[in-house]
Amino acid sequence: MDTHSTVSRTQNAQPSPSKNTTVWSVEAVEALFALPFNDLIWRAQSVHRAHFDPNGVQLSTLLSVKTGGCPEDCGYCPQSIRHPTAVANQAILSTEEVLVAARAAKDSGASRFCMGAAWRSPKERDLDAVIHMIEGVRALGLETCATLGMLKPAQAERLKQAGLDYYNHNLDTSREFYGDVIHTRDYQDRLDTLQAVRHAGMHVCCGGIVGMGETRQVRAGLLTELANLDPAPESVPINLLVQVEGTPLHGTEPLDPFEFVRTIACARITMPASRVRLSAGRESLSDEMQALCFLAGANSIFYGERLLTTGNPDVERDRRLFERLGLHAE
Asked: How far is CA 272 from CA 45, 52, 222, 275, in A?
């Protein structure tokens, strides 16, 4: 993908996290959702332009380095041992296998390489293996991100010392709806991991999933939780539920696509300095809907033909879409 520089280094730079000056309420975020669509998009685009190059999109590639066999019961996840899905267990990849994928991602234009493992929390021997991967990926000149489940403070410190740039740990949904989706860990467990990541000095990648049968109030609650983290996450992946046969959420009524765009816009307004990423579920969005999401303030995508276990638009489709919209990679 063309990575020409049309703006200055300062404009392209990732904004530094700063202390929150606005405390959002669920009611205030619901009021944003309720705005006429054109007014909401205009407001989101105005906020977006004040903080980012309006035509720049950061590209991340995600690789599952250990697939399946997770003991958690997350209702959306095909990697849970509790759900009868077609996902096959895969032992942890070798460092060389990961580096082959990372080199291909870099050659395709990605600037960040994310490694995901289906663990409730990593054991020390697991962490040893991932640290070798992190060191290798950083040596290629890529930003590094990992999602490995819950972390203890000492584990977060080890990952930071290895050079990990970002740690992903999603809140998934609001506090009130969380127990309808997940029963094997609670909301505070997730917050504790995020705190450990922050205290270790890493950037936070934290978002959620919409389209799980939740109400608009629940979506507003999720964004409120994210925006009120202090500081807000540097990266905010917004996932649209990918329904996988065998998971409890298979058969859920699909979310109205315009409600998804509204969610992106509200994320941009409430977290003005964060990268808002189109993540899982992007394959189901038309080019026109993706264009609306970029207009609403999305400025990061997962890039490549596969996420952890589900499909993603192929690289050529993304290149064509960027050309049609006049977007460029950052």
From this structure: 10, 9, 16, 8
DSSP notation for 109-124: T-SEEEEEE--SS--H
Tell me the catalytic residues.
70, 74, 77, 114, 145, 205, 277
Inter-residue contact 257 to 281 (CB < 8 Å): no
pTM of the model: 0.89
Nearest to 303 by CA among 133, 93, 105, 45: 105
The C-alpha atoms of residue 122 and residue 110 are separated, in whole angstroms, by 26
Answer for the pair 273, 298: CB distance below 8 angstroms, yes or no. no
Give the DSSP per-residue string, 228-249: TSSSPPSEEEEEEP---TTSTT
C-alpha to C-alpha distance for 72 and 80, rounded to whole angstroms = 6
Instruction: Please answer whether residues 134 and 163 qualify as being in contact, where contact means their C-beta atoms are separated by less than 8 angstroms.
Output: yes
> Distance (Å, rounded) from C-alpha 124 to C-alpha 34?
47
Task: Give pLDDT tens digits for 290-321.
Answer: 999 999 999 999 886 554 555 456 788 899 99
The pLDDT tens digits of the residues spanning 68-93 come to 667 787 878 877 666 777 666 777 99
DSSP, res 306: B
Residue in 318, 207, 316 with CA at minimum distance from that of residue 260: 207
pLDDT, residue 119, reads 86
* DSSP classification of residue 205: E
CA nearest to 77, candidates 194, 263, 168, 209: 209
**Interior/surface letters 79-115, b for 16+ CB within 10 angstroms, e for the rest:** bbebbebebeeeebbebeebbebbeebbebbbbbbbb
User: Could you tell me the sign of the dihedral formed by the alpha carbons of 254, 218, 289, 38, in that order?
Assistant: positive
The amino acid sitting at 163 is G
